[in-house]
What does this fold into?
Amino acid sequence: MKRIHPFLLFIIISIPLFLWAKLQILPTFDDWCTLSSPNTDTDYLQYFTRYGNVWRPFDALMGYIVGLNYRLFPTLNHIVIFIGHIACTYLVYSLTSTVNFNRLSKAIATTFFYISPCVLGTVLACDSLNQVYSQFWGLLAIWFYLHFQNKWKYILWIICVFMAALSKENGITWAVVPPIFAFSFNIIDKQKIYKHLLFGISIAITYFIIRMLIPKVDIFNPDYETFNVLKNIKGLVIWIGYTWFSADYISIVHEPSRNLPLFFGTLFLSLPFIYILFIRKSKSIYSKKTFIGVIICAIISISPNLLISLTIMNAYASLGMFAILVGFIINHHQETKTISIVFSLYLLSAIIVGIHHWKSAYESSLIGKEMAQSAIEQTKTPVNKVYCIIIEDDDPKFSSFCEIPSNAFGWGIAAKYETGYQWPKEINDTTIERTTSKHIIYKIAHNALSNNYDCVWIVDKKNIKVIK
It folds into this structure.
């Protein structure tokens, strides 16, 4: 029996701790209102169709399941997401074995995928079921493509692409990634790649035709309706930064948490590994067909997000391909001892970054729970309709890790969760500027009460004031 590489042993040993830490995080912001959050709507079937600009029946199914028993949320979401991440990690290992990487290359590629800061926006969230399984089905599509040679290659490829796309729209890119990946590693020739790319494009066209025929519920989403160049540039920086550099970005981007020694300390721990990957190695490797092909696969897999909206969670979409690229580069290195040392430093940095991001996300989520309990205690008796006045918070936030209190509160939805979705039945909200006078705030509150709202919750940062 072959001895397990220490880096892979680290993954196995850390899995229970990683899962335990994930299960501690409560919902915040989008977690409260996405399709995978508890759905108690009697007309639940509409969420399985095109809901606004998305068609994600697996998210809708999760929302329906946790809607049957709210106590399953967010624990079940966390477990399913974590299982998906582990499955993706295994597929990265399996694919590196399929293309005959050496022992060290396979171990580092797999560990890089498992622990990279790029996974944090996905793995630490409650609503990232779509992101994880879009990647899973995409990697599985490549695996089937490489391991089957008869009609099952095409059948399983089609199934995986549709499953990826129905998990999240960018999953449709896996219709063309498998043949490019195979061609990059000289598994197929030019004749086959042209033929299979046409087949992949036909899969994508079929998906879009079916998608257009599916009924649609009109929901406005600014991320899909508007184009912002500065936002896209910011997304590009996030993508590159979180993918390649293990640095504690919270410590430099989020002003209240600013800790320059921690940021530069984690950055410098990861730089030797990046130096070995992209600078020290002979430039001849960068002109190799495999190197270029895998980068093309990575760019294709994330291209929809680059065009629309790219957050830390979305950066996960290309991580599988980049992890395999890391393995490919290391597979051409002879200095195995040096590589093991510098990757160990990178791993140490990634662990520090992960712990800090987890701690921040955990603390942010607790704020939402505390605010919800405060609102319920002050309201005292169950009410049907609540109007939530949110005084604009001028404190900065950072992704889902450092949320402002009103977002952690979920505009009041966190309170519905605390009552088992029994009350209030309806919550509407408005956000007003911090400079708004108290006279105007109370006027808005009394107008709401005169319009059949049972009470008003005034949200001022962490503080809740109830007017009945």
About this structure: DSSP finds 19 helices and six strands in the chain.
